[in-house]
């Protein structure tokens, strides 16, 4: 069964939830943790912006790409992951957003699989994740050149206050012990 938007915009990732631990928190609609997948799919909406839009969430996202391509950020390759904690502004990079046009033709995304963990709590990367694997230029993908009012606003002050990072997989590094991988549950 295929589930996706057929009318407008980008669907909320919650339609791809595979597993969920419901939250007893103050915020209705949030979860302790959701596991979401973005499998092969058709994008068929017309006269709208198909990539994920620039936004903020009440949940924290840890997203990664297992294989294939990702439609909202150039250079986000298999093995990459990103963290967007609560209320951190994020969305497609400037090149994707400015160059995105929808001529009404359906697009098929196949040979790709991305995942996301969403949590009511903040993700706290370990020192290793914030070390040599961190992409210090990640925030630059939203910076405008001043010619576009929307990108001047999005790419300046708002993004500068967000806590975002990309962790790149480096196949040349030796494996680390599982308790030293991306996140330390004792720090959350």
UniProtKB/TrEMBL annotation:
<feature type="active site" description="Proton acceptor">
    <location>
        <position position="10"/>
    </location>
</feature>
<dbReference type="GO" id="GO:0046872">
    <property type="term" value="F:metal ion binding"/>
</dbReference>
<dbReference type="GO" id="GO:0005737">
    <property type="term" value="C:cytoplasm"/>
</dbReference>
<dbReference type="InterPro" id="IPR046451">
    <property type="entry name" value="HgmA_C"/>
</dbReference>
<protein>
    <recommendedName>
        <fullName>homogentisate 1,2-dioxygenase</fullName>
        <ecNumber>1.13.11.5</ecNumber>
    </recommendedName>
</protein>
<dbReference type="GO" id="GO:0006570">
    <property type="term" value="P:tyrosine metabolic process"/>
</dbReference>
<feature type="binding site">
    <location>
        <position position="70"/>
    </location>
    <ligand>
        <name>homogentisate</name>
    </ligand>
</feature>
<dbReference type="GO" id="GO:0006559">
    <property type="term" value="P:L-phenylalanine catabolic process"/>
</dbReference>
<feature type="binding site">
    <location>
        <position position="61"/>
    </location>
    <ligand>
        <name>Fe cation</name>
    </ligand>
</feature>
<keyword id="KW-0408">Iron</keyword>
<dbReference type="InterPro" id="IPR005708">
    <property type="entry name" value="Homogentis_dOase"/>
</dbReference>
<dbReference type="Pfam" id="PF04209">
    <property type="entry name" value="HgmA_C"/>
</dbReference>
<dbReference type="InterPro" id="IPR011051">
    <property type="entry name" value="RmlC_Cupin_sf"/>
</dbReference>
<dbReference type="InterPro" id="IPR014710">
    <property type="entry name" value="RmlC-like_jellyroll"/>
</dbReference>
<keyword id="KW-0479">Metal-binding</keyword>
<comment type="pathway">
    <text>Amino-acid degradation; L-phenylalanine degradation; acetoacetate and fumarate from L-phenylalanine: step 4/6.</text>
</comment>
<feature type="domain" description="Homogentisate 1,2-dioxygenase C-terminal">
    <location>
        <begin position="1"/>
        <end position="144"/>
    </location>
</feature>
<feature type="binding site">
    <location>
        <position position="90"/>
    </location>
    <ligand>
        <name>Fe cation</name>
    </ligand>
</feature>
<dbReference type="GO" id="GO:0004411">
    <property type="term" value="F:homogentisate 1,2-dioxygenase activity"/>
</dbReference>
<feature type="binding site">
    <location>
        <position position="55"/>
    </location>
    <ligand>
        <name>Fe cation</name>
    </ligand>
</feature>
<comment type="similarity">
    <text>Belongs to the homogentisate dioxygenase family.</text>
</comment>
<feature type="binding site">
    <location>
        <position position="90"/>
    </location>
    <ligand>
        <name>homogentisate</name>
    </ligand>
</feature>
